[in-house]
Amino acid sequence: MAREGIVAVQQETQATAGDRAFTTPVSEPIQSRRRGVPWRDLAISALTVLYFVFALFPVVWMIILSLKPQDKLFTTYFQFEPTLAAYREIFSGAGGQGGATFLRFFVNSLVVSLGAVLVSLVVGVPAAYAFARWNFRGGESLLFTLLSFRFAPELMVIIPLLVIYRRLGLFDTHLGLIWVYQLITLPLIVWILRSYFQDLTPELEQSALLDGYNRPQAFLKIAVPLILPGLAASGLLAFIFAWNSFIFPFALTGSNAQTVTVGSLSFLGGATPRYNLTAAAALIALIPPLLLALSIQRFLVRGLTFGAVKG
Amino acid sequence: MATLTLRAIRKEYGKLVALDGLDLDVGDGEFFVLLGPSGAGKTTTLKCVAGLETPTAGRVEIGGRDVTDAEPNTRHVAMAFENYALYPQYSVYDNIAFPLRSKRYYRPPVEARSVIERVTTTLGIAHLLERMPRELSGGQRQRVALARVLVRPADVLLLDEPLSHLDAKLRATMRAELKSLGDVQRTTSVYVTHDYLEALALGDRIAVLREGSLVQVGTREDLWHRPVDLFVARAFGQPQINVIPGEIVSATGSSTFHSRDGTVTLPLQAPLLAAGTPVDLGLRPRDLILGEMPGMLPIRGQVYVVEPLGRQREVTVEIGENRVAVVTPQEDIASGDQVTISVAPERVLMFDGATGRNIMSDGLPESRMERAVHPEAVGYA
User: Are A309 and B138 an interchain contact pair (Cβ–Cβ within 8 Å)?
Assistant: First the structure.
């Protein structure tokens, strides 16, 4: 009986398959489209290459510039003997301002940028969580104040800041820069992470509360691991902004805590502008953000929270 | 194990009043069902018990202890969320083991494993322990959420529509099994659902909620046979209770019901009512019998449509401007037939036409309760 049933079903499926083959014509249009020259794809590729060259040309120009000897700096033809003299010079401190070597600027930049991001994360992650989960008095204005730091021009506050920093003894210190960099990094981290926390259903932490954990544990064990992609993205972005900052270190540091952005420029200050040294310095300064971006790339994926709640 | 008491719970979200003076008493070990349409405040009630929402006013007591302002993690309450709330970064096993790894409900790993294996076997998810939540179907996720609640001790178990996303067959099985789970049996449980069948099958007592207020609390017999108003009467039963609007005439000694279109006239054993009182007559489709029966009240009409429901069929009969559904095993019925519907006088429900309150709910003969047929017994084929 059962076998007969199966045979019958098979026959039926064969019949319907046959019907379908009979009624539906072979997909002619798709095949003919495949046969032709893919003009569209070619055009897109060509445009992409064109844009690629356009976008990377300044970098290429800088690389060439950094490899040129001093006397060929202003020639526009590419006939010269490449030399690493510029790189040697910036690290020896011979071309630098006040004998400070480029390595010092580099380390300064690393210290203050990483420090600023770390402080912002320690303060900003709980802050973002609070902004996302609770409506408290003044919460909205506090958020807006944070955002306003990003669109108020830095030049507006730099003179009073300089005065205050001199009074407090923060002028030309790493701590001072890390502090002032919070204007750059903190709003970014708070605003980005707040939206990540908002995407997370509060019932996950509520469930953890009922499972016997207290609020800090629910926050650290459940909520924070789920916003790691956001943490990586906002941390990276904040680092890049801090690393690129010019006005603050320019005004608030001397020889001690000066960063690469300001330091690279010091090569242009002498009797003859040393463009090759600046180019070499800028290229090296490109490396840390690049490495950081590559190393946290795997965290920059969405979809970690998939499966938490019903779709 | 504990009793649960809610006193005058009020919860406002801005201008919206989610709960309006809710009073509930749930006995120790009782399986209590909250039934109501969406937006009635069922989930809000659970969250107030769990401490995830703070009531605007009122008091929550668990085991006689006032916990209104207590932190959720100190209340000894377990809750299965309607949207599961599984931790996506943990495997199914780690999800279920999560409460057993907390300080409060700690069990040594070996012991935890045996508990988890027992519970997951009962729920039929023992083979999924190494999976991640995202790899599970809706029904499987729901059972994982249920398992996470059942592996740990709790004074009160809160279940928010824990069966809503299972397919029909599994739901029926789980419904039967849920209450037989030892932990559920012994623990004071509040179960939220919008499915009246679940409520009737599971609830020791059932509370019907509407717009943040309690409409009626009682046993399944209370709610089925003595609904306080039309809302409750409509909440139970498929097809829905038939309602025929009309009024009382000739209040001399006994009242008689006259439908508005004049096609139905029934003598009633009701408390004496003033003539002209607007009244809605309530007739449950499964209390109606096709054909004339001695000792029963007859209503005449014409068959409008017949729908087969497996063993039985739902017959819609047109009576004047009203349509009345009847569920019957009879097969020789076709649309257009002239039929007589019979109803036992004590099965007729009467509601105040203006307020919808049940007029007959007071002074019912006690025998009625004993004769009460379990609604499951008259369910679908």
Answer: no
> Residue B271: its pLDDT value, please?
62
Beta-strand relationship, B188-193 and B31-35: parallel
Go through A201-219 and write b for each residue having 16 or more CB atoms within 10 A of its CB, e for each that does not: bebbbbbbbbbbbbeebbb
Low-confidence ranges of chain B (pLDDT < 50): 363-381
Tell me whether residues A307 and B88 touch, CB distance under 8 A: yes
Q: Which of B245, B269, B258 is nearest to B360 (CA)?
A: B269
Going along chain B from its start, the domains and CATH numbers come out as: 4-234 (3.40.50.300), 240-378 (2.40.50.140)
Checking phi first, is residue B189 left (phi over 0); if not, alpha (psi -120 to 50) or beta? beta
Closest Cα to residue B307, out of B315, B295, B297?
B315
pTM above 0.80, yes or no: no
Residue A309: which of B51, B73, B85 has the nearest Cβ? B85
Q: Diameter of chain B by CA atoms?
A: 77
**Pairwise pLDDT comparison (A267 vs A250), residue with the higher score:** A250
Window B:19-48, CB contacts with A under 8 Å: 47
The residues on A that touch B, with CB distances below 8 Å, are 201, 203-204, 206-215, 217, 222, 225-226, 304-311
Q: Which of A63-72, A270-279, B159-168, B204-213 is predicted most confidently?
A: B204-213
Torsion over CA: B112, B65, B212, B241 (sign): positive
Whether B79 and A210 lie within 8 Å, measured CB to CB:
yes
| Domains of chain A, residue spans | 92-299
Asked if B134 is an interface residue toward chain A (Cβ–Cβ < 8 A), one would say: yes
pLDDT of residue A113: 97
CATH number listed for the domain at residues A92-299: 1.10.3720.10
CA distance B256 to B268: 6
CB atoms B86 and A308 under 8 Å: yes
Q: Are A210 and B89 in contact (CB < 8 Å)?
A: no
* Amino acid (one-letter) located at A219: F
Q: How far apart are CA B152 and CA A208, in angstroms?
A: 13
pLDDT in tens, A227-262: 988 898 899 999 999 999 999 999 999 888 899 999
Q: List phi, psi (to 5°) of B315.
A: -110, 125
3-class SS of residue B197: helix
* B373 DSSP 8-state letter: P
What confidence tens digit (pLDDT) does each residue in B65-108 have? 999 999 999 999 999 998 899 999 999 999 999 999 999 999 99
Give the separation between CA B349 and CA B281, rounded to whole angstroms: 6
User: Quick one: closest CA in A to B84, which residue?
Assistant: A309
Cα–Cα nearest to B360, from B248, B266, B268: B268
Single-letter residue type at A243: W
Angle formed by the axes of helices A275-295 and A228-244, nearest 10° = 170
Burial B183-199 (b: 16+ CB within 10 A, else e): bbeebbbbbbbbbbbbb
Q: Is B89 within 8 Å of A225 when comparing Cβ atoms? A: yes
